[in-house]
Design goal:
The protein is of the alpha+beta class and about 425 residues long. It folds into two domains: about 100 residues, 2-Layer Sandwich (Phosphorylase Kinase, domain 1); about 290 residues, Alpha-Beta Complex (Aminoglycoside 3'-phosphotransferase, Chain: A, domain 2). Helices cover about 50% and strands about 10% of the residues. It contains 16 helices and twelve strands. The strands form four sheets. Strands 1-2-3-7-6 form a five-stranded antiparallel β-sheet, with helices on both faces. Strands 8-10-11 form a three-stranded antiparallel β-sheet. A hairpin with a 4-residue loop joins strand 2 and strand 3. Helix 11 runs antiparallel to helix 12 and helix 13 runs antiparallel to helix 15. Bound molecules: 5-S-methyl-5-thio-alpha-D-ribofuranose (SR1) and magnesium ion. 5-S-methyl-5-thio-alpha-D-ribofuranose binds next to helix 8.
């Protein structure tokens, strides 16, 4: 009998117990076959928080993701609520509705066991791995630009009926401990000597510069205030290159357990930071193709924002059915709303730039660094590349309002890429 059918208390699955525990789940059996003795189960979770199993059977393959009651990266000294699986499930079904095809298909959710059974994406691999290997993904910019625009717009009161949106703000506001990780690891810990911080030796002078910059820290805290209190839209909340799976021609977004309502610029800002960290780390990973690959990464950034802007403008024209910026105030009075839209896009861009800078800091200074830099064994080289990233992050936080557009952002990246600071 399955755990769910037996109504048993939560128990973490293992390779040995999964077959017995999950037999009887119709949607899983439909995908992989009904006889669990024929299932081949592997645990492949390499993230910071959860168990992830690949279940392969005679009919096909599925993924089982289960939350652990603690942070996997740290151990049971850092407990973490199982309810994050509930929020992840609700985020996934909303993302699937708002941007069809952008996320894995969900087959089954078991709240008590904090587990989600979902589509096995193949031959997809984690995007971060592809970027480290210097592989390109066709259509990446367009796909992620569309995802960010559609989820931002359709999860907000530009589009949603206010009662539904407010109910969702209420629903997701129960996800407390997970955003709290972001509030400390992303926005706070990099800027003081927090217990779980670590950094590459040699970065001490730049760390002193960042921590000595009260104006910059105040701007980060202002952004944290926005992140914690602005409920513009439903965010993915952790949109880095480890939350995207890709082939040569396709990308899908996974892992929205950090979902919360927040500012529209958050997801695209975090994503941009991860492209920039891929960019700055490339000299350690590439040979003759270095410049061409770095330029491709910058094209992905400009392309993502172009797709975001174009899709946001289309949705503004065709789906502005919420209480915000109603046609009654603009088009119905013979006035275009283009300026209002562009001003909003400008605000989103500025938030994205500041978030981008903050994310560039946290991945080198607090807990949970990026493989892009971490896998560089030559410590002096790693420090020399990370410092470019950290300096540009500071510039973005301090000057978010003056960066004209994605082309200017890319010029800035090229300039820091040529700097030898250490
Ligand atoms: C303790 S969790 C550390 C990080 O892993 C997740 O993917 C989030 O990025 C979080 O900040
Ligand atoms: Mg994750």
């Amino acid at each position: 009998m399955s755990a769910e059918a037996a109504g048993t208390e939560y128990g973490a699955l293992s390779v040995e117990t999964l077959g017995e525990r999950l037999s009887g789940i119709d949607r899983l059996e439909e995908r992989v076959g009904a006889d669990p003795s024929l299932w081949k189960v592997r645990e492949v979770g390499d993230g910071n928080l959860n168990l992830v199993f690949i279940v392969e059977g005679p009919k096909g393959t599925a993924i089982v993701k289960q939350a652990l009651p603690y942070v996997r990266l740290v151990g049971d000294s850092w407990p973490l609520p199982l309810y994050r699986a509930f929020y992840e499930y609700h985020a996934l079904i909303r993302q699937a509705e708002r941007d069809p095809g952008s996320v894995p298909e969900i087959y089954h959710f078991d709240e008590a066991q904090a587990l989600i059974v979902m589509e096995f994406l193949s031959p997809h691999v984690i995007l971060r791995r592809k970027l480290i290997l210097g592989e390109q993904v066709g259509g990446l910019a367009e796909r992620l630009g569309l995802f960010c625009a559609r989820t931002a717009f359709r999860g907000s009161e530009l589009s949603m009926e206010s009662g539904r949106k407010k109910a969702d703000v209420g629903l997701f506001s129960g996800n407390v401990e997970i955003p709290a990780i972001t509030e400390s690891l992303v926005f706070t810990d990099p800027y003081f000597d927090a217990e779980m911080n670590s950094h590459t030796p040699g970065l001490e002078p730049i760390i002193a510069t960042l921590r000595g910059d009260a104006r910059m820290k105040a701007r980060v805290q202002r952004m944290l205030m926005t992140f914690a209190s602005n409920t513009e839209t439903m965010l993915h909340g952790d949109l880095h290159s480890g939350s995207i799976m890709a082939t040569e021609t396709e990308a899908k977004v996974i892992d929205p357990e950090f979902v919360q309502y927040g500012p529209m610029g958050f997801d695209i800002g975090m994503l941009t930071a991860n492209y920039l960290m891929a960019y700055f780390s490339q000299p350690a990973h590439r040979g003759a193709d270095l410049e061409a690959y770095q330029e491709w990464l910058l094209e992905v950034i400009t392309g993502t924002f172009a797709a975001f802007k174009a899709e946001f403008a289309r949705l503004w024209r065709e789906e502005r059915t919420g209480m915000l910026y109603p046609a009654a105030l603009f088009e119905d009075q013979g006035q275009p709303s283009d300026e209002a839209r562009d001003e909003l896009l400008r605000n989103i861009w500025q938030d994205a730039m500041a978030i981008c800078g903050i994310e560039m800091h946290r991945r080198c200074l607090s807990l949970a660094h990026n493989a892009d830099f971490e896998e560089i064994e030559d410590v002096a080289m790693r420090a020399s590349l990370e410092v470019r990233n950290l300096m540009m992050g500071r510039d973005l936080i301090l000057n978010a309002e003056t960066i004209a557009d994605p082309a200017a952002l890319c010029d800035m990246a090229r300039a820091y890429n040529g700097k030898d600071v250490l």
